Each structure stands twice: as C-alpha cells, then as structure tokens.
C-alpha cells in the first residue's frame, strides 16, 4: 500500500542545501542545550554538595552510563533508517508498522537496560577505578538513573522517529523542555530540599518522563500513518530484523568508541595532573566541532534514507556532495575560530599557566586535523541511510578503535610525550577516511545495479 502521508516533512523535493540546513540547525541546537544541561547539572551538584558528589554524577559515572545508553542509541539509528526509507517511499502501512515496532523495541530495550544497568552498576564503577569516597554516592545515583531506563530509551527512540520523517524541530523542543525541567528540579531537590545525589538522579528521571509524555502525546494526535496507537505497539518480524541489522552494529561501534577513549584517557592521566586538567579543559571546547559534524551526520542519514526510499538516487548523491562541502566549510571556520580565540576559551576553565600552556599545545596540534575526520562522519551517515551498517561499523571499529588502541600501546614507548599519544587521532582519522572514501565510491552503496528494495 502506497499513499500520500499527510503533514509530512519529506525531503525528497526542493533545494537540497536549504533542506539540509533546516534539518541540521535544530539538531545542532539540541546538542548544544544537551551540553548546557549537563554543564548546569554539574555546576548545581558541585556547588551544593561538593567535589565527591560532583564526581559521583559525572566523570567515570558518565562513562559507565554511556557504555549502555550509547549501545541502545545505536539501535535507534536502525529505526531511523528503516522509517525514513518507507517515509520517502510514501508507504503508509510500513511507516505505521515501523513506528510501532520501534516503540516495542524501545520498551524491550528499556527493560533490559534497567535490569543490566542496576545489576552491573557497582562492578562497572569498580572496574573504572571509582575512588572509595565517591563510590557509595555514584552507586546511589546510577541505581536511580537506571530505574528510569525505559523513559530514557523511549525518548531517544521518539527523537529518532521524528527525525526519520524529516522533523528535527519537534525533538529539539522536547529536549529543551526536558532540560529546563531538569535544571529547575535539580535546584529544588538538591539546593532546596537537600536530597543530595538522589535528588539529582530523580530530577533526571522525571525530566525524561516529561519528554516521553510529550512524544506520546504528539504522535498519538497525528492524523496520518505516523499516528501512534498503544494497542498496535508490537514487533513486526521483518522490520525488527532490518532495524537490528542496521542498529546493532552501530551500538557495538558506540561501545568500542567509549572503550578506546577510556584507554586514551588513562594514557593521558599518566602524564600528571596538569596534563589531565588541560585535556579536560580542551575537551569542553573540542565539543563545538563534534556538535557540528554529528548534526551534519544525522542530517545526511535521514536525507539519504528518504531519497533512497523514494528511488531518487541522484538526489541522494547530490545531498552527500552538498553536505561534504558544508561540512568542510564549517570545519575550516571552526578551525580558524580555535586558533583565533581558543586560548581565551581555555581560560574559562582554568587560570593555571602550566595547564593553559599544555592545553594550547593540544589544541594547536589537533585542530588542523579536523578536516580529515569529516568524511568518516558524513559518508558513514550516508551509507547507513542507504541501509548498510555492517561495513561502516567494521571500518570504524578497525580504523578508529583498533588502530588507535594499538597506537596507544606501541607508540608511547617510541615517543613518550603527550603529542605522541595525541597523534593517534589524526593517524586513525586519515586511515579511516581513506577506507570510507574507497567504500563509498566503489561499494555500490545505492544498489544501482538493481532497484532499491524496501521490505
């Protein structure tokens, strides 16, 4: 059954660069507010409860949470691709089935993450070396956080559904409301009532529940095939298989990224407090580039997904060329900005002259290499939009994670300096970019030898 989907945000027609930017900016702003929310959360807890509580709700705790949440966020990317392809093909029946299968997957994943997260909290925290004075607070925080596993996963899936249909504004509005709610509740529970880290965790869970209510309310009020009906939430076997084939490798990739970053962090820590502090400060500024490039990556995944589903292969290709140009221009502007005012940005986090000196050296070494990364994010997004996930995951895992870990274990013995460690970034970016470029142009990504087939 194929029919026109009412109230759609189809990106299969119109000026490509305008549509990509219209999709890109809400994602970028959403990421910005997410970062602002995390920063505000840390400030409130740190100011009211002290350094032990601050460490309990951030740092290693965040890494442990990302190991699990990142995996299920990867699963949601599989739903994005499947829904966007059927949406682009204007296949109402499959859009509806895809949305209800996605929600069933989110509910099942939420239950799993609640059980695994709660049970593995203490072993995970001990594994990453959480200090003894922080451990009890961190366990309390994570136990409450994981009890809210279902709304956390459903929000990510809901955002994926809206973006798959070309609507990046709605999940941004929901995120904004959720962030404001969380900050207000943090101030009330932590600063006002004095609930400690329990209050911070409860505030996070409540804010996620608010966003889930908004997602369900909005989807249930739709008048087209994207309308959510509770009684129809169930698995459709073929669609579930497609989502898992695309999303599962992306989830594994997220885990591998986190592990490789942990190894690099451990290596950097070995250079002492000044270097670790410089890296922490630089990492905050570094997020500006990653917010931009990740937003472009999400945009091109949906763009290619819808146009691939509609059989508009040439338009999909033009979109990829356009987003690569936009990504390159943005990267050059960001790089120039870092060199112009980056040192002043670092001063927001520290006034220690030695830390600043190390931080500036890190920045000036890494920033020029950003341009070598854009092909990885944007071409992998395009490839996944066409329904291919295994090969991009293998390329990323081998090119970025495995090579980077080998570098960290070998090169520091030859060049035992911080720049020797940081060189793992451009090395892995260049190798992986070459692999993605070759695969994209030589791998029959769009199945042009046969008509795109969507189950």
Feature tags:
mainly alpha; cell membrane; membrane; 455 residues; 16 helices; globular; antiporter activity; Membrane_Transporter-Flippase; 0% strand
Task: Give the proportion of residues in helices.
Answer: over 70%
Distance between the termini: 12 Å
Q: Could you name the ranges where pLDDT drops below 50 across 5 or more consecutive residues?
A: none
Q: Give a short account of the largest sheet.
A: none
Number of separate helices: 16
Mean of pLDDT: 83
Q: By helix and strand content, what is the structural category?
A: mainly alpha
The secondary-structure element order is HHHHHHHHHHHHHHHH
What Rg is obtained from the alpha carbons, in whole angstroms?
A: 22 Å
Query: Strand content of the residues, in percent?
Result: under 5%
**Envelope shape:** globular
Query: Based on DSSP secondary structure assignment, what is the total number of beta strands?
Result: 0
Could you provide a short overview of the structure?
The chain has helices at 16-49, 51-57, 60-88, 92-127, 135-147, 149-164, 169-192, 197-220, 237-269, 273-309, 313-346, 353-366, 374-385, 390-414, 418-422, 424-442. The chain has 455 residues and is mainly α.
What do these coordinates show?
With 455 residues, the protein is mainly alpha-helical. The chain is 80% helix and 0% strand. The protein is built from 16 helices and no strands. It has helices spanning 16-49, 51-57, 60-88, 92-127, 135-147, 149-164, 169-192, 197-220, 237-269, 273-309, 313-346, 353-366, 374-385, 390-414, 418-422, 424-442. α1 packs parallel to α7 and α3 runs parallel beside α10. The longest helix has 37 residues, at 273-309. The termini are close together. 48% of the residues are buried. The model has no long low-confidence stretch (mean pLDDT 83). This is MATE family efflux transporter. Keywords: Cell membrane, Membrane, Transmembrane, Transmembrane helix, Transport. Its main location: membrane.
């Amino acid at each position: 059954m194929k029919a026109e989907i009412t109230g759609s945000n189809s990106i299969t027609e119109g000026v490509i660069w305008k549509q990509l930017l219209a999709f890109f900016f809400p994602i970028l702003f959403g990421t910005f507010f997410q970062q602002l929310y995390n920063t505000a959360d840390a400030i409130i807890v740190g100011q009211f409860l002290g350094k032990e509580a601050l460490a309990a709700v951030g740092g290693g705790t965040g890494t442990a949470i990302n190991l699990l949440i990142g995996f299920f966020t990867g699963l949601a990317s599989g739903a994005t691709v499947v829904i966007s392809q059927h949406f682009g093909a204007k296949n109402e029946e499959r859009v509806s089935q895809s949305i209800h299968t996605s929600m069933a997957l989110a509910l099942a994943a939420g239950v799993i993450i609640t059980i695994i997260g709660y049970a593995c909290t203490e072993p995970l925290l001990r594994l990453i070396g959480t200090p003894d004075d922080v451990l009890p607070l961190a366990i309390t925080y994570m136990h409450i956080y994981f009890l809210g596993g279902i709304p956390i996963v459903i929000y990510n899936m809901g955002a994926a559904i809206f973006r798959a249909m070309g609507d990046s504004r709605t999940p941004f509005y929901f995120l904004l409301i959720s962030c404001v709610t969380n900050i207000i509740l943090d101030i009330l529970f932590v600063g006002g009532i004095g609930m400690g880290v329990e209050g911070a965790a409860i505030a996070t869970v409540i804010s996620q529940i608010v966003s889930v209510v908004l997602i369900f309310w909005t989807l249930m009020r739709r008048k087209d095939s994207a309308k959510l009906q509770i009684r129809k939430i169930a698995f459709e076997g073929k669609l579930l298989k497609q989502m898992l084939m695309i999303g599962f490798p992306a989830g594994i990739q997220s885990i591998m990224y986190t592990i490789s970053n942990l190894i690099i962090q451990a290596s950097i820590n070995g250079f002492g407090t000044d270097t670790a502090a410089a890296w922490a400060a630089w990492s905050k500024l570094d997020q500006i580039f990653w917010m931009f490039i990740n937003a472009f990556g999400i945009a091109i995944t949906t763009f290619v997904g819808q146009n691939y589903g509609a059989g508009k292969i040439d338009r999909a290709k033009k979109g990829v060329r356009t987003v690569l140009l936009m990504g390159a221009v943005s990267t050059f502007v960001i790089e120039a900005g870092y060199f112009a005012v980056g040192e002043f940005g670092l001063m927001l986090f520290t006034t220690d002259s030695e830390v600043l000196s190390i931080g500036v050296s890190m920045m000036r070494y890494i920033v020029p290499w950003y341009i070598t990364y854009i092909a990885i994010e944007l071409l992998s997004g395009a490839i996944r939009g066409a329904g291919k996930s295994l090969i991009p995951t293998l390329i990323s895992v081998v090119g970025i994670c495995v090579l980077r870990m080998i570098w960290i274990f070998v090169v520091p013995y030859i060049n035992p300096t911080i720049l020797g460690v940081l060189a793992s970034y451009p090395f892995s970016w260049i190798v992986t970019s070459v692999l993605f470029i070759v695969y994209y142009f030589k791998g029959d990504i769009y199945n042009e030898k046969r008509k795109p087939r969507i189950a």
